[in-house]
Amino acid sequence: MFNRIIMTVSLLAFCGVSAFAQFFGTADRETTITRNGQQIPVLIQGTDTIIIAALDEVKISGSRLFKNDKERSRYIQMRYNAKKVLPYVVEAVKLFQDIQADTKDMKAGKKRRRVADVQKELQSRFEKPLKSLYRSQGILLVKMIERETNRSLFNILDEYKGTLSAVYWQALGGFYEFDLREGYNATKDPLMESVLQEFDVKGLVAQRRAQEAAAGAATVPPVGK
After folding, report:
1. 3-state per-residue secondary structure call for the chain
2. CA-to-CA distance for 19 and 95, rounded, in angstroms?
């Protein structure tokens, strides 16, 4: 049952599959240009083309010190779990941003119908892998999504599924000592925060967008063809 909670709530973050083209297609547009045989990401604003340059982040750290073997073991396990769910987190954050943009001017009822329609489409894709997660992996997946979106799961459910649905899942989560209202708190679990700082989710989301933009540009036929 707990995995059902994780699956249902996580699917809500996978609900903006068509929003990217709608949101960015009429205003600023990210694509790539070829210069000296090298593909360069650019941002097109009207008639202006701006080259996007990103510098790799450099992290300097010493050897990690642990209080005891139990903390070391927990760190290793949590880092493994974070790597396991990272692809889902990246997908969730990207699509969550898209659905926010796509539905920002919609009334509540229309927004929820849109989310429900897209959720059905995505359920066959994500239901099985999400249900196969261990409880600890499912919790970490949720915490990573909350950390990146700066939203609690209860808040997400309330906005996109309605208060009644949010209260239902909150009550169900309570049986498993899982508080959907709590959200992510970096100070509550410093070890978790130190693990999650190692993963550049925002950078990976931007990388996904650049890859999709490049793939989309490659399928556009040259002018005059």
Report:
1. CHHHHHHHHHHHHCCCCCHHHHHHHCCCEEEEEEECCEEEEEEEECCEEEECCCCCCCCCCCCCCCCCHHHHHHHHHHHHHHHHHHHHHHHHHHHHHHHHHHHCCCCHHHHHHHHHHHHHHHHHHHHHHHHCCCHHHHHHHHHHHHHHHCCCHHHHHHHHHCHHHHHHHHHHHHCCCCCCCCCCCCCCCHHHHHHHCCCCHHHHHHHHHHHHHHHHHHCCCCCCC
2. 8
What confidence tens digit (pLDDT) does each residue in 190-217 have? 999 999 999 999 999 999 888 888 877 6
Q: CA-CA distances (angstroms) from residue 61 to 37, 194, 197?
A: 37, 12, 12
Q: Contact at 8 Å (CB) between 117 and 12? A: no
CA 31 to chain CA centroid, nearest Å: 21
Cut 0.90: pTM above it: no
Integer angstrom CA distances of residue 55 from 2, 41, 43, 75 = 41, 13, 16, 29
Each residue of 3-42: pLDDT tens digit? Answer: 555 555 566 555 433 332 333 333 445 666 666 666 666 6
Percent over 90 (pLDDT), the chain: 20
Q: Which residue has the tokens 């001017």?
A: 105
